[in-house]
Amino acid sequence: MQLTKNFILDEFRCNDGTAVPEIYISNVKELANNLQILRDYLNEPVFITGSGYRTPFWNAKVGGVKNSEHLVAKAADINVKSKTPKQLASVIEKLIKAGKMKEGGIGVYNGFVHYDVRGTKARW
């Protein structure tokens, strides 16, 4: 299923192969729409490096928090080739402050950035 111009539903499936459950399709569409804004701004691909959606089993396996936004398909671990995770997080922050991307969680990790559309500010 095509979610946006550049993102398809399969990109957001759990790393164990589980598809995003139907109940969370609206969440993943909202996430993909925000990631599309980022992609268009950067004019380069945004790669989902970790899961978008995670099953509870997979979330526990990778050490995710119990109330992870990944469990409801509202989060993705991402990177882009031209930016370090810190630089990418800074771009997302800029787009949120400009009202172009939805406020949410931004976590900077070694090799990727977590972004979610929880609707409230969270940074780590």
Automatic annotation (TrEMBL):
Coiled coil: none annotated. Transmembrane segments: none annotated. The keyword Hydrolase applies. One of its GO terms (molecular function) is carboxypeptidase activity. It holds the Pfam family Peptidase_M15_3. InterPro entries: Peptidase_M15A_C, Zn_M74/Hedgehog-like. Residues 7-116 form the Peptidase M15A C-terminal domain. Keywords: Carboxypeptidase, Hydrolase, Protease. This is D-Ala-D-Ala carboxypeptidase family metallohydrolase. It comes from Flavobacterium sediminilitoris.
